[in-house]
Write a structure and sequence with these properties.
With 558 residues, this protein is α/β, with parallel strands linked by helices. Helix content is 36%, strand content 19%. Strands 1, 2, 3, 4, 5, 6, 12, 13, 14, 15, 16 and 17 form a twelve-stranded mixed β-sheet that branches. The protein has a four-stranded mixed β-sheet with strand order 18-20-21-19. Strands 7-9-8 form a three-stranded mixed β-sheet.
């Protein structure tokens, strides 16, 4: 059966019963039908306070560099949470919301797979509780208010050429990357160049994910830098005095969503930033709710450890005061053989030589996590083509560098297939070996923070900044933003900036072509290589396979 068929055959229990398992009563929920709910503000505040006093153990799931062969990070995250519950550990999983862009593009959904999924799968992958739509509207309200201010007299003397705020859309649409607006005459607005980004890479998405309260949300929205005046002074959105209206659109968005796994275990699914072009982590509020209601929390960060995990540890954990207890790195033998030089068509046969060569990619990610003072467990996400010899070799290679590797069979067997992994992860999380610390000090200049990540995590020999990027970084520091962390936007298909450099590249020059200030979110974005913040659709998009019948049954979604 396909993932969607497995999910559709599953019999869910009412979300109120799922909530009861972690001590949340029905009156503390805002129901979106029988199987989805948001947490009320009152309960959210209570859980935040509880998490501050006695949080559960926090386990981060990350992965090797993705390949067309698939890695299954969400599948392992969900399977691990089910496995921990199966061995008697009260566990909650906290994940991101899927974006419609990948669902109709190339990557697919983000609800796991096989017998390790969260449900209702179709709802979560499509409109869910409307969070991403509301984020898009709030983002575009800001854009409309900026252009209206200029049209109606421009009291703030905003220079239209400097406007950095972009419109957004939760779909892949390359034609909207660079556009001209305001055409058609004086009453149609002021003509200028504009841009679209995908909604999950917007600063509003980052702000929602990092804000704990409406007050904090409004403070962050106030701080958004939208452009400059003709005196080259920064203009913040707060100066337009419309922050309350934007926050009103986001009132419900800030509340975490509660759903369930196929095994009826609780899952907070909230926030959806991509890790290649954004900070790649679910909301702080979802993580705090999980930490307050479970003894163990499994969360994931997008793409590989050089992207999602680094941003989780340098941005989210630092911002929210979180301290992880263990890290799980998901690897597949198929993916490592691709990193060892095999084509996708050559993966079904046993090839220990390619596996050993491709292990360099996993080894780099293990070493990188150790730089944050955290212990690692490798989860070998099992595929039917994996041979006993290959599995044994991978375990031995991990053991030689001090990391334990455990087979994960959550896709095929659900929680039963991850019990050994769960026992290993719980033991390490309980061991007290974690000594979390960020990679870099916030007092470093912005250029040095970027260089630290590029050299320590990506293994670059040097960093090359475009002159315009250097100039902007200097102005950011002069304006008082020098102590912000950095969020690097780069390809997910390589540890480097170049998607063609598979395995464990090193010694390259890392190119930073542009930088952007996300003053509201609280970080500086550095764009490297050819990365785009608005993806395009592939030649054969996933939309070709998706359909719905007269009974509302969706097919082909995954």
């Amino acid at each position: 059966m396909t993932d969607i068929e497995i999910a559709q055959k599953n019999k869910m229990i009412p979300i109120t019963q799922v909530a009861e398992k972690i001590g949340i009563k029905q009156e503390q929920l805002e129901l979106y039908g029988p199987y989805k709910a948001k947490i009320t503000f009152e309960e959210l505040k209570s859980l935040q306070e509880k998490a501050a006093k006695k949080p559960g153990k926090l386990i981060l799931v990350t992965a090797v560099t993705p390949t067309p062969a698939g890695e299954g990070k969400s599948t392992v995250s969900i399977g691990l949470a089910d496995g921990l519950n199966k061995i008697g550990k009260k566990t909650v999983v906290a994940l991101r919301e899927p974006s419609l862009g990948p669902c109709f593009g190339v990557k697919g959904g983000a609800c796991g797979g096989g017998y390790a999924q969260i449900v209702p799968m179709e709802d979560i992958n499509l409109h869910f509780t409307g969070d991403i739509h509301a984020i898009s509207i709030a983002n575009n309200l800001i854009a409309a208010l900026i252009d209206n201010h200029i049209q109606q007299g421009n009291l703030l003397n905003i220079d239209p050429r400097t406007i950095s705020w972009k419109r957004c859309l939760d779909l892949n649409d390359r034609s909207l990357r660079n556009i001209i607006i305001g055409l058609g005459g004086k009453i149609q607005g002021v003509p200028r160049e504009d841009h679209f980004t995908i909604a999950v890479a917007s600063e509003i998405m980052a702000i929602v994910c990092l804000s704990k309260t409406i007050t904090e949300l409004k403070e962050r929205i106030d701080r958004i830098v939208i452009g400059q005046n003709y005196n080259k002074e920064n203009i913040t959105f707060g100066q337009l005095k419309c922050t309350g209206a934007v926050a009103a659109l986001l009132k419900d968005v800030i509340k975490p969503n509660l759903v369930q796994t196929l095994e009826k275990n609780p899952a907070f699914v909230h926030g959806g930033p991509f890790a290649n072009i954004a900070h790649g982590c679910n909301s702080v509020n979802a993580t705090l709710c999980a930490l307050a209601s479970g003894d163990y929390v499994v969360t994931e960060a997008g793409f590989a450890a050089d992207l999602g995990a680094e941003k989780f540890l340098d941005i989210k954990c630092r911002s929210a005061g979180l301290k992880p207890d263990a890290v799980v790195i998901v690897a597949t033998i198929r993916a490592l053989k691709m990193h060892g030089g095999l084509a996708k068509t050559e993966l079904s046969g046993e090839n220990c030589q390619a596996l050993e060569k491709g292990f360099a990619n996993l080894k780099t990610h293990i070493e990188n996590i150790s730089k944050f003072g955290l212990p690692v467990v490798v989860a070998i996400n099992k595929f039917i083509t994996d041979t006993d010899k290959e599995i044994s070799l991978l375990k031995d290679l991990c053991q030689k560098i001090g990391a334990k590797a455990v087979l994960s069979e959550g896709w095929e067997k659900g929680g039963q297939g991850t019990e050994e992994l769960a026992k290993t992860v719980a033991e390490i999380a309980d061991s007290g070996k974690a000594n979390y610390h960020p990679l870099y000090d916030l007092d470093l200049p912005l250029t040095e923070k970027i260089k630290t990540i590029a050299k320590e995590i990506y293994r670059a020999a040097d960093v090359e900044f475009d002159s315009s990027a250097l100039k902007k970084l200097k102005t950011f520091e002069e304006a008082g933003y020098g102590k912000l962390p950095v969020c690097i936007a780069k390809t997910q298909n390589s540890i480097s900036h170049d998607p063609k450099l598979i395995g464990a590249p090193s010694g390259f020059t890392f190119p930073v072509r542009d930088v952007q200030l996300y003053a509201g979110a609280g970080f500086v974005v550095a764009l490297a290589g050819d990365i785009m913040t608005m993806p395009g659709l592939p030649k054969a998009p996933a939309a070709l396979n998706i359909d719905v019948d007269d009974n509302g049954i969706i097919s082909g979604l995954f």
